[in-house]
Amino acid sequence: MNIDGHCLCGKVGFSLRSEANWSCYCHCEDCRRNCAAPIVAFFGISLEGFSWHIKGGAQEPKFFSSSSGVKRFFCDNCGTPMAFQAEHYKGEIALYAATLTEPSVFQPKFHVHHKSSLSWLAMDDGLPKFQESAPITKIPRSREI
Fold first, then answer.
1. pLDDT of residue 89
2. Rounded distance, CA 138 to CA 118, Å?
3. Helix/strand/coil for 98
4. pLDDT at 141
5. 126 vs 27, 46, 86, 108, 123, CA distance in Å?
6. Which of 139, 37, 11, 56 is nearest to 97 (CA)?
7. Rounded to whole angstroms, how far apart are CA atoms 13 and 11?
8. What are the CA-CA distances from residue 57 to residues 45, 51, 54, 75, 76 (Å)?
9. Which of these, 27, 74, 100, 110, could form a disulfide with 117 (CB 3.0-4.6 Å)?
10. pLDDT in tens, 47-86
11. Structural domains in the chain plus CATH codes
């Protein structure tokens, strides 16, 4: 499986050589504010199957530490949010589905932080909705994004 994605300006991209471990929607305030969106779609993959690709003199993605042990990566040139990495998810990085070259390959499996969902956004998709983070033992694993 080879999947790629990039930022708005195209100077920071990535490729995946492994399948997604999980894929979901997040309703937490940090994700919403980071992406300026009412909900964020992302998926987690092993760092072993992931690589950044930098073009046109751009720099490696910058990151903002939004909380202890959490890094939110973004393109230093255009500001596009690219990824999320947390110390408590060892060996994994979460990529924002909207950065995929072909976002239609993304298939969410559940919602997290649903208690923080915005009242004006109704998502009656039938997917499991965890009020907080999904317990690792209950995360619907996916071999597709």
1. 84
2. 24
3. helix
4. 56
5. 16, 27, 28, 11, 8
6. 37
7. 6
8. 27, 17, 7, 12, 11
9. 27
10. 998 999 999 887 889 999 988 889 999 999 999 999 999 9
11. 3-138 (3.90.1590.10)
Identity (one letter) of the amino acid at 83? A
What is the rounded distance in angstroms from the CA atom of residue 116 to the CA atom of residue 89? 21
The two tokens of residue 124 are: 């009656």
DSSP state of 136: G
pLDDT digits (tens, 9 = 90+) for 112-142: 999 999 999 988 999 999 988 876 555 555 5
Q: Name 112's bridge partners.
A: 26
Q: Which residues, at least 6 apart from 78, have a Cβ–Cβ distance to it below 8 Å?
A: 7, 8, 9, 11
Q: In whole angstroms, what separates CA 7 from the centre of its chain?
A: 13
Task: Report phi then psi at 107, rounded to 5.
Answer: -130, 95
